Each structure stands twice: as C-alpha cells, then as structure tokens.
Amino acid sequence: MVAVEELWPASLAESWDTVGPVVGRPERKVKRIMFAVDPTLEVVADAVARGTDLLITHHPLLLRPVNSVAATGFKGEAVHLLIESGCALLTAHTNADSAIGGVSDVLADIFGLTDTQPLAPSKDGLPEEGIGRVGMLPEPLQLHEFASRVFSAMPAVAGGVRVAGERAGIVRKVAVCGGAGDSLFDAVRAAEADVYVTADLRHHPASEAREAALNGKPYLIDVSHFASEWLWLPTAAESLKNVLQDLGHEVEVGVSAINTDPWDFILTP
Amino acid sequence: MVAVEELWPASLAESWDTVGPVVGRPERKVKRIMFAVDPTLEVVADAVARGTDLLITHHPLLLRPVNSVAATGFKGEAVHLLIESGCALLTAHTNADSAIGGVSDVLADIFGLTDTQPLAPSKDGLPEEGIGRVGMLPEPLQLHEFASRVFSAMPAVAGGVRVAGERAGIVRKVAVCGGAGDSLFDAVRAAEADVYVTADLRHHPASEAREAALNGKPYLIDVSHFASEWLWLPTAAESLKNVLQDLGHEVEVGVSAINTDPWDFILTP
Amino acid sequence: MVAVEELWPASLAESWDTVGPVVGRPERKVKRIMFAVDPTLEVVADAVARGTDLLITHHPLLLRPVNSVAATGFKGEAVHLLIESGCALLTAHTNADSAIGGVSDVLADIFGLTDTQPLAPSKDGLPEEGIGRVGMLPEPLQLHEFASRVFSAMPAVAGGVRVAGERAGIVRKVAVCGGAGDSLFDAVRAAEADVYVTADLRHHPASEAREAALNGKPYLIDVSHFASEWLWLPTAAESLKNVLQDLGHEVEVGVSAINTDPWDFILTP
Amino acid sequence: MVAVEELWPASLAESWDTVGPVVGRPERKVKRIMFAVDPTLEVVADAVARGTDLLITHHPLLLRPVNSVAATGFKGEAVHLLIESGCALLTAHTNADSAIGGVSDVLADIFGLTDTQPLAPSKDGLPEEGIGRVGMLPEPLQLHEFASRVFSAMPAVAGGVRVAGERAGIVRKVAVCGGAGDSLFDAVRAAEADVYVTADLRHHPASEAREAALNGKPYLIDVSHFASEWLWLPTAAESLKNVLQDLGHEVEVGVSAINTDPWDFILTP
Amino acid sequence: MVAVEELWPASLAESWDTVGPVVGRPERKVKRIMFAVDPTLEVVADAVARGTDLLITHHPLLLRPVNSVAATGFKGEAVHLLIESGCALLTAHTNADSAIGGVSDVLADIFGLTDTQPLAPSKDGLPEEGIGRVGMLPEPLQLHEFASRVFSAMPAVAGGVRVAGERAGIVRKVAVCGGAGDSLFDAVRAAEADVYVTADLRHHPASEAREAALNGKPYLIDVSHFASEWLWLPTAAESLKNVLQDLGHEVEVGVSAINTDPWDFILTP
Amino acid sequence: MVAVEELWPASLAESWDTVGPVVGRPERKVKRIMFAVDPTLEVVADAVARGTDLLITHHPLLLRPVNSVAATGFKGEAVHLLIESGCALLTAHTNADSAIGGVSDVLADIFGLTDTQPLAPSKDGLPEEGIGRVGMLPEPLQLHEFASRVFSAMPAVAGGVRVAGERAGIVRKVAVCGGAGDSLFDAVRAAEADVYVTADLRHHPASEAREAALNGKPYLIDVSHFASEWLWLPTAAESLKNVLQDLGHEVEVGVSAINTDPWDFILTP
C-alpha cells in the first residue's frame, strides 16, 4: 500500500524488526481501516465485528517467525479469524517509531517540546528521523508538575505513572521514547536531559541509571508501554485518511477502543 | 490428531524439521482427507475443489519460518486458500521418513528387500526406525536389471532414472533413501551396499562417491525426489483410514493425482 | 566464610551469575554484618557509617566484569569507599534465590503456601532447591483478596502492586518468584498455577502470557523487585546469626534500612 | 604462471574458493598442458600417460583443506601420482567462471546470446565479469526448439537435458550459469529472463522456482554439470596457447577426452 | 589525566586492550609518580613504601576483567594495597607501544635506526604511529656484532639474548617490536628486514619463520619481554615530567628499580 | 601401520591435533625408519639422503590444513621431496605425549621420578595415560642441583635452561610436561608440585604463575621445546624396533641427528 509506505517507510525499521503486510490479499479493496497498538484476539474480534477491511497495528503479530499458523495458539487463531473475515493486517512498528509524525514525534508534540531532535538518529533516514526525541519545555517546571502533565496526556491505565527523582526538582530539557527505551540511557545522558519519559523500566536499568545520575538527573518517568504508543494512533489515522483522500480514495479510518495494557488494577500505599 | 501421531510420531522428526499441523482449526470435524507430496498451489486448489477438509503433505509449507502470511507470495496464497476454504494442512516429513511403514520402509518393500535395517537409526525411536533402509534382494541381479525394476516401480516422471556403474555388475545388497540422500554416503559405505537408490544427487557428491568406490561399488541410482516419496502416499492413506476406522470415524481418504515433479520433458542421447 | 557457604552454597548459583566475596581481606575479623538488597552508594555509605565490617547484598556489584575499579564511576567509588573503610562485600544472589530458606522459600512462607515445590528445580541441588516456588493456599481466595495480602506483606514502595485478572477470580494454587521471573512462564503454565507473583514484568511478556492464558489463568501480580527480595533479608540475618553463634562467634547482624527501589512517587487514576 | 593469471585472475574467485597451483614445482619447465573439468584418478592417470607436465582443472582437488596427502584415499593417491610423474596441477574455478572468455561467457556465445551481462557482477572485477550471464536470442524460439539447441551444443552425457515449462512457450531472454546455479534465482527473476539454463537443480529449489514463476517464467533447463563446464575447455586451451605463444613459449595444449559426468546410463518413459 | 592522554592517546590502544586508570580517586592530588613494567605485588609494595601517589605500569593489572577484587588472590591484594595506601594505578599499554616516543620508537632509537616506519601502522593514528618499527642501521654489521649491541643496550636479565642465524651474516635493515611480536612475521617479511628483534618467541613460530626465511633472513633475536619494555620507562618518565612542568605542576617522577623478569638464573652450554 | 597404533594410539590425541600418516603409499615396504622432532626441510633432506623409507616426526607437517601442496612454500617442498624419494611421513604428536612410554613418561624417567601420575589424565585412555606427569624425586634436592640434573639430561641447545625460584629452595615433588605446558598451571598447583619443568614459557604466564605461587612454589624450569621432546626419540625408536621384530619384520630404526631448535647462539650476563 503506497500510502502506508509514504508515511512510515519500511527503510526506517530496525534490523531485527518485521513490518509491512502480515495477512490479507493485496488485490482486495479496502473500505474500513482501524488502528490499534496490539493485535490481540480481543482487538481482532472487535475489528472484524465492525466490518474492518484492514487492521494496522503497531506491534507485529509474528515478530518471532513461525512454522505453523494452525489455530492451536492465539497467533494462529488471529490469523484464521482475519482470513475467514477477509480482514487484512499490517504492521507499522519501529518504522512508525522513527518517522516524522511517528510515535516519538507525537509524544514530543503532546508534551509541548520545541527544538526536538532524535535521541538515536536513523542511519538511512532524514536527520529528523530516528528513535526517541529530546527537546525543551517552553518553560521550566517542577518534576511533579511535569509528571502530572504526562499523566493527564496519557489514556488512563491501571498502572499509572511512576516517577524517580525529587518532586521539586526543575526540569527543562526532556527526553522521550515511546515503548521500552532502556537501551537509550547513554544517548539520554549525552543529551543532558533533565528527565526521561519511557516505558517498561525494570529494577536494574532504572537503579543503575539513578546511581549514574549527576546531581540526581536525568529523573525518570515510567509510563504504560501501551499508553505511550496509543497516543500515536489518532494522528496516524488522520494522516493516513488525508493521504488516501489526496489519492482519491474514500475510506473510513478509525482507532480501536480496546485497552490492551495488560494490567487491570493496582494497590498503592 | 491422535491417529497421525500414532502412525508417524513427531519425536522421529529430525531436529531441523517442522512437522504437525500448519493450518486449520483443531476443533473442526474432518470428513475428507487427501495425501500429497508437495503443498503446491495446484495441489491445494485441487484438494479444495474436491471438498477436502484435511490435506496431509510430506513436504512442509513453512520449513523456513515466516513473519508474514500475506498473499503476496505463493506460500501466503496457499495459507489464504486453505483457511478461506476451511481446509486444514498437516505435515508428516522426516517423521514419516523414519517410521515403520514410512517412506523408506515402503521403498524397501517395493524393491522386495529382506532383512532390512535403518541406514541411520533414529536416536529416540525403535531399532527398526530411522532414515533410509538397507537390505538384501531375494536373488542377485545385474545392475541394469535392478535399475529396470526401480524404473517400473516408480510413477512415470519426465526425468527418468539415472544410473552410475557397470550394466552387468551384480547387486545383492541394496541401500535406499527416499528424497535427497546425499548425507548418508558414509552409512552406505559402512553397510557395504552394492547399490544406493536415492534422489537429487548432484555432480560433486556423486563424483566423490564414485571416486571413493571400492571395486566400483556402491553403484548409484538417482530417481525423482517426488516419485520416491509419492510411493509412500497410498500406503499412508490406507494405514490412516484403518486407524481411523478402528477409532470409529468414517472418513474418506485419498491420494492427490497431481504430479509435482518439476520437470516436464527430457532430451536424451 | 564457612557459614555463608553452608546457608547459600555457591553451587546453587546460575551459570551466568557471580557470587561470593567481592571486596575485602579474608583474614580480617568481622564484628558487624549488615544485609541489603543492592550495593548502592547510599547503602554502602550507611553501612560504613554504622561501623559495618561485612556487607552482604543480594545483587552483585560487578555482575558485568570490569577492567578498572578507579573511582571515576559509582562502582569504583563503592569499591574505594569499602576498602578505605575496611568493610568487606559479599554477594548471595541466585544461590540465595534457590536455597532452602532462600528468597523464594521466604516468599512462599509469607503467603502461607503449603506443599511447595521449586518452579525450576536446581540441577546440582536437593529436590527442594531451585528458582521459584509453587504451592497451595490454605483456602481459596478471590484474586483481589490475595492481592491485598501480597500488598500487605511487602515493604511499602512507591510503585505498589499491579494485578492482571478478574477481581473476583478464585485462586488456590500460587506460583512465586522473587525478582524478575519472566523466563519462567512455561513452568508456571505447566504447574497450572492460578496466579503468578513476580517482579519486573514488561508489556510484551505480560501481554503474551495473558493472551496464552486458559480461562484467564494464571493471573499475574507484579510487585517491586526490591520489595520481593527485601523480605528475605531478616530471615537471612537471623539464620546467619544462629549459624555463627553455633560456631562460637559473637557477631552483630542487621538489615539495612535503606529503600533501594528506584521509584519515588506514582500518579494513578 | 603469468599467462594463467592474465586469463583468469585469482581476484575473481569467490571467497570460499581455492584456485591456483595445487601440486608441482614452480621452477620446472612445462611442455605439455592438458585441460579437464575434474581431477579424477582416471583423468590424472590419462594425463600422466600422455606425458603431460601441467594439468589444469576447473574443479579443485583440495577444496576442503587436508591434514594429510597419504595415498590412503583417492585425493592422496592423485597427489602421489602427479608428483611421482612430475606433473603439476593447477585450478581455475570460480575465477574461470567469472572471467571474460570464461565458462559463462562461452555458454552465452554457444547459445548465440547478444547484449550479455553478468547475472551476479564480480565485486572486484570489470563490469563484464561475474557469475552467470543473461542476454537475448537473435530471434524468439519456442521452448522445445531452444532446448534442442542446448542439447545439441553439449557433449553427450547419459543424463541428457531436463526441461520445466511449456513446450510451445516463447523464449527470447536467456540466463545461463555453468555448474550449479541454484543460488542465482533472485538474479534470474530480477533480470526477467524467459528461461534459465544451469545444472544440478534439485527438487526443492526447482519446485519453489516454478511456484514463484510469473506466467510460468522463467522456464528451467537443467543440464549436466560436467557438460556445461566442459564447453569452456577448448576455448580455454586455445586462449592459453595464444598467450603463451605471444610470450615466446612453444607448448602443446590439449583437452582431456575423459568424460567425468558420474552417470553411465538412464531409463526414461 | 590530561598529560597522559596527550603523550599516549587511548585511541592508539588495540581493540582487545584496556588502558587508562585502574585504581584511584580522580580528584586526589598527585605528588610522586613511579613508572614500572608490571604491577606485581613487589612493585606495588615498593611504590607504596616510597610514598608514591600514582603508579603507571605498561602491563594492565586487570586485562581479563574481574567480578571480584577481594584480597583472596594477588590481583585483589594489589587493589587493596593501592587503595589502602591512597596510591592510584594507571596503564599505558598498546597505546604506549604505538605512540611517537613510545616503546617501539625508544627501541629503534637505542639501536640507532634511521628512516624508521611502523611495522603495523595504527589505523586511527598518525602515519608514524603503530606497532613495531623498521629502519636502517647507520652501517652494515655482522649478526653477532648487532646482537652484542642489543645485549649491551638491555638491562641485564637472567635469560640473556637468544639469536637465530649465521654469526657472520650481514644485517642492515632491522625490525623491532617491544614485548611479544610473533603476530608480525608477515609484516617483517614484507619489509624485507635482515633481522627481527622481539620477545617471547616460542618454538613453532620461530621454527616456521626460520623455515620460511629466504637466504636465511630475517634472522631472529629474542630478548626479555620485560627488558625490551623497561627501556621505555626512563624516556616516558622524562616526557611526563616535562609535560607536567609545562602545565605548572611540580611533581617527582621516577622509575621502579624492581626487575620483574620472571627468570632468576640460567644454565647454558 | 599396526605397530605404531599399538604404541601410540590415535585415540590419545587431543581434539585439535592431527596424527597418523601424512605422506606415502600404504602398500610400500618399509626397510629404514628414522625418528625426528620436526619435519623441517633439513631433516627431510637428511632422511632422504640416508635412504629412509619412513620418517616419523613428533610435530605435524600440516597441522593447519592446506588447499595446496605446490612446492611454492616449505611445506609443499617437503611433500614433493618425500614423494619423489618414496619416503613416507607419519606423525605421533599428542598421542605420543600421552601414552605410556610417551614423551612425558620418558621425561619423568630421566629425572628419576617415582609414583608418577598424569597431570591431565586422558579422557579415553588408561589412568596412567595423559598429558604431563607429576612424581617424587628419590631424595630432596636444592633447586639449583635439580636444575643442573635437568640441564645435563637434555641435548645441548643454544638457549640453555632458565630457572625461576630460589637457588637453595628444596624440591621433592616434580611436575613435567614436554613441549609447551603453559595450559597446565592449574593442574600443577593442584598437584602441589615444588617445581614445574616445561618449555616455551612466555612473560605473562610465567609472571602470573610466580605471583600466584605460595611460599614461592612451584618454581619454574623452562627448557628447549625441541630438547624436551628429543629425549623421547631413542626410546620410541627402541620400542618400535622391538614391536616390529616381534611381528617378524627386520627393519633399521634410527634417530635423526639434526638439531631443530631454532636458536643458534646466546648472550648471557
């Protein structure tokens, strides 16, 4: 599909990643498109029930390659459900992370960052493309104020938003990376960011980053992996709709309402 | 499917191989089963046209694992055709080579061998199980006589049967391996076979085997890969039908009539 | 040190792990021992300030081996602080996870489990030794009731306790693994546990475990890595004191009061 | 030998290949040179019997390196025979495949191709050098007509020439690769050749190529590995003779009459 | 330390090497510096006894990285001794081999070589930098004369200087490599050196080099590894003192008097 | 050759090693056998000049396997010289190190050791077989006395015998390993030997062994690699002669008089 390649070129994908069409017949006409973060069975069933012809997800269904798609597991079940219903599936993963208007760019926009640059510039892309973004807040904020803005900007998930650092510490320079960003700590330190917003931080990377911090910075804000990437969906849907209209196609484009964050509730002190 | 596992246990498969269900819903009832060597598009379309519920092939559709089953290639096209038509696909490959009553056993039977043993015994199976077989002809034959028997026993394919050795040489001890058997030359020599019947022998393995031959033996007979494995299909179909009847299932079991040997004609001196 | 080897034998450590003495002179007399989860600079400074002769931590300081201990980084800084103050450092990590009375055993005890067995039995140890434990609650509980018990048993940390599953779902069989347990999902499913309590679960492993769940089980409870291992410290201190007294040594043994969970506060819906 | 390096430079050899002198004293004078495809014992004995000083073969004797040349196997036997008779051995393998006037070029010439280009251009050579060639027939032919020409151009071997495709299909653009060419299918498809002539095609590569074919093309013609490379010998002998004459050396150059195709007879339908 | 980096830049180190600070607090003032070849316990104890603040050695203490610096081995003992005494340790190894004024340059100077060039030029350095040197003697010498000069230039060690070659053979072009130089034989031959002076030559490399010699050259002179590198120490100490004085620091710089060649006596014919 | 296999079974060779016949026709009669340490050109030429039919060397000619034996290098030159002269070559390397009556056993005998055991027992051999030996001197000696005995027992070579340790230190338990033994230091320490006699010790292994020594032991004695293995030749020749006579063969067996130690002279303090 030409429009998808224009928006999120496959050349921006990381080498370990798999993007592009996963299920579907290329010659079939598409009338309804739905965006989602994860191709879970619940998301697929909902898309099919709504008459979707093309489901575009951020996470790949078959990242680890398979020798069988028999419906003896949830991945084969999804393949059967999709093909039986004539719904195609397409992945826009690390290519959508890196692109202009991609996941990281949308996060930076929502936090109001200016003068943004990639944390890890893409090797084969434009200078503005790459994983993560770092930029400046329009005005300095205390850490707890900034964390509240992050919390408000995200769709509500059970796990909330965890913060490491002093509540009253001042933050001005912000690094963000949608999804799991624990491989970018060196880039975050090199950029001298005051705070790093990402997801899926475990004890050891987070502790080592805190021990290595100078004057306590960068602070860390750990958000929901799902929520950080969900934010990209409405923008992506809007962009795709516009590109398709420019190409003369009349297509409905929507965003899945299913929350695929795995956590259902939390107990806190 | 219990019956398949009983006949050709997955534990007999080689470590690099992938066997078992590839497409289909395990809960669906099966009324018509078809056997074939290769899951080519022609075989799949024919099976679907005949109302087949389960296609059992010797060669895997997805031996190299895939990240996508989109119908942009012939493998994805086969997956779509099968799922859209409600036809399951199952592979019985190196497990069916090794089993008692498997590909190698059927070949040995057709050539009338006695006192047969595996060329490469299966590590986790019975002593009678393993890749290839070696056994004795009931009476000594000249090489050209034995080659004629091999030729007559096989389904006719364009490429015929190639022979290396003296026409009048005497053969008594015969090694066979359905499909490509060029990794078993050491076992063939250790068994002191007079002739080795297998498929897909290329110039270098065949030449080195001829150079290393003692008194010109083992002679070599190179047959069609497809034909050598096709011989197993009727036996396999019969066995499966019997097992299913014993379990109280009334199922039609057939063999595909499509020739999937790739060659269409030959020019010879 | 003989007493440490008796309690947590090095042979129980995983192959990638490094346990035993890290800093210190073996001939020096030990009067005060302190236990902690992490050898952070704050923990080391506090231990030194309290006149500690031997600091025993669960996490290794030098898991990734080093070519330099210059005080140009926080690990070298810790080495200098310890040697300058005459305080030794010793690690009891995956050996303490696996041992009887080790981290996993203590968690199982605190949750009141009976008939406990290791999730992944130790290859070179007793049958009761190994990573993780699975056992039965004395009576069935609803998931939210059990989660509350887990929450109450843990030292309070900012991130709290996250739960995936239905509040009213019934749990009887419980799997636990102190620290990061995402490599044990196969063992948890094989054990048919109703719920799995562990730490550091990220989006993809947790989501895939939820998709693969049968009837929604196992439920997941994600606790603080630090908190799950802290629970072992008082028991470990008590055991070591007893062993040393039996050997005729009069030694003070304490537990560090420093919270080394990296998170300082949380925002929840 | 300078002349050999000029004609078939070692820099054109593939990285896994071994070319150049294998046996012989560099200072010894050469009066008689013989070319052959394979250094079999029969070829070596014949060369020695004819008083050959230098045997040049296409296939290496010691492609897999050896720790012993004792005459306990056929390779050591060949080394002894050569050294005892004062006959040198030299290999021109993938360098002779790639060179201008090399194996692939000779095949293209014999089939009358024009506008030829390499299928896989050599990295370190001229633009006209590389493995395989693709070019145009002077006029369109039906597949069976073209196959007849291929058959007539080759030295007669038992196995003949196998063809996959429709007899009456039209071919104009032809890809050729002497020896085993199954690694070049991607290049053949990219070149949009109507037919691919090569050797040693086994069931799986041939079948997958037929399944992936668009409108049935490229058709496949499988010839004898030996025969496809033998065609190069007279040209090579002529070229070497000329170069040596230009250098003022009076040398006899011949081609071995031994057929080293391993197959002796064939049975066809 | 800026002065050290200026003299022996870390970028000149080989990829497998580890150079720079190993022990010590960067903020501590340095008054006394001592140079040595090896950080043996005897060298460290002597340095500490003399009030040294910084010990600079050619060989790394922790070339193989460690998970523990407990004083249960001689490396941990050295770390404890250094930190307890407030003495830092710094390594200048293959970077000091390669640099201008480094180990190889000093050897070339002492032997009076002119027109020197590196044997293996440094990839990231100046053209004059790299491992080993090759240059011309001011006048031709007999091998035994040149060996006597080498012997006289070296600090006396038990093992002396071993020579392979004819006593009266003429040498003019000399290759040198401080420390173990057996990986540079190809470069020595390419440079057409008459003699190669290096250390730690074992039977097989030395024998193969002698067998491969043309007209018996290059001759070999095997010196003490320690002695060949010790020669660099006075020059290094002088250079560092000068750089520090230029920067306005008044520092004592000395050379350790401890002989760390492992051999104590020799018996010769 | 049956006699060789009986004396030094190939199964005792290390996995990286290559032993057995290297050059020669197995059917040729053998009248004169010569033993040598190294198959240098000088040794081969001397053997050929003396009418030798079989040269048995300790070191392999083709340890690194080769793709060519052209006489463009010294190894190919040796192959040509041997085959042209009808002299076979056979290697008895690590199998001869390990065997009873092998290199290590002969060294232990010459030093008068009793109660000898292998340093590294052979996995597939008898308990008395393996690399190296450790045993007791009949009476305690001072280190310099023992070194003198070692020196006197060895054939004279230029490099002499180097010793690390106190002249007057007492040695009783002695470890020996013919050839390069620096991989056996752990076994030497575990055996609590007072002194270790081996060859080819370089600076770093020797220094680290000295640093790790307890009370200065084990002392080290570094002998000529060639000399340590030459000692085995007369015993080996005698044993082979006896075995052959028992088999009824009348064969001359001798030892090469060529010294293949690479060093020609030494300068010492």
From TrEMBL, chains A, B, C, D, E, F:
Q: Which InterPro entries match?
A: DUF34/NIF3 (IPR002678), DUF34/NIF3_sf (IPR036069)
Q: Which NCBIfam families does the entry link to?
A: YbgI_SA1388
Q: Which Pfam families match?
A: DUF34_NIF3
Q: What is this protein called?
A: GTP cyclohydrolase 1 type 2 homolog
> What organism does this protein naturally occur in?
Paeniglutamicibacter terrestris
Q: Which residues form a coiled coil?
A: none
Spell out the PANTHER family in the cross-references.
Answer: GTP CYCLOHYDROLASE 1 TYPE 2 HOMOLOG (PTHR13799:SF14), NGG1 INTERACTING FACTOR 3 (PTHR13799)
UniProt keyword annotations, A-Z: Metal-binding
Please describe the quaternary structure of this protein: Homohexamer.
Q: Which family does it belong to?
A: Belongs to the GTP cyclohydrolase I type 2/NIF3 family.
